[in-house]
Amino acid sequence: MAEPAEPFMTKSDFAYTTLREKILSGEFKPGEVLNQATLARAIGISTTPLREGLRRLKSEGLVELDAHRDARVTELTAEEARDLLELRRSLDPLAVALAAQRRTKADIQEIRAAVKGVEPLLSNPGVDDLIAHRRFHAALYRASHNDLLITTLDGLWDKADRYRRLGLEVVRSEEERDQKTVEHHQLVEHVIAGDSDAAAAVMHQHISTSLGAKAASRLGVSPTATPRALP
């Protein structure tokens, strides 16, 4: 989920933040048409800053703009679901492996506090549930102390949020949800113990069986597929 808005921002920043939250939360559905005049009135600004906000969202791949005065929320695609899954299967394990090597006492305290608030997501999670999951993973990312990696994973998390909601439409068994809880606690244990290999292995499994993987499967992508080597 998006972070809370800053108390002082430009109107275009306000438009960007407001619309981005509505898209990532699922309030604006994939493929939904957004009339700019109607939208500007609804959030209390003129169309000029609204268009500036929409252009920022277009640069992030969240909306498409046409030659008229409409915008459209970008559809979910099998290709993007696959790309996100491939990236996260590589980068999330790297992040926790580095975290196991570089975590500080402050990192450990933050990770332990964050995992306490994480519960397996149900089919219609509340905002607090989604924030708790992001907070936990973000604490692991920050413990890597690799700023480029942290920024990249933060951006991937935003893009993946819409696919998580699609993945939640697949009913998960209690056993599957319990396994996610086990994996969260294993990640904490391995990072604190400094075991990079074990942390990376658990995270790879965690991503490979994630809601994003379920979404990819629903869109026709095999979650276990791996890229073919070049000849």
Automatic annotation (TrEMBL):
SMART domains (UniProt xref): FCD, HTH_GNTR
Keyword Transcription: yes
Signal sequence, renumbered to the chain: none
HTH gntR-type domain boundaries: 9-76
Keywords from the named record: DNA-binding, Transcription, Transcription regulation
Keyword DNA damage attached: no
InterPro entries, per the entry: GntR_C, TF_FadR/GntR_C, Tscrpt_reg_HTH_GntR, WH-like_DNA-bd_sf, WH_DNA-bd_sf
Protein name in UniProt: GntR family transcriptional regulator
Organism: Lentzea sokolovensis
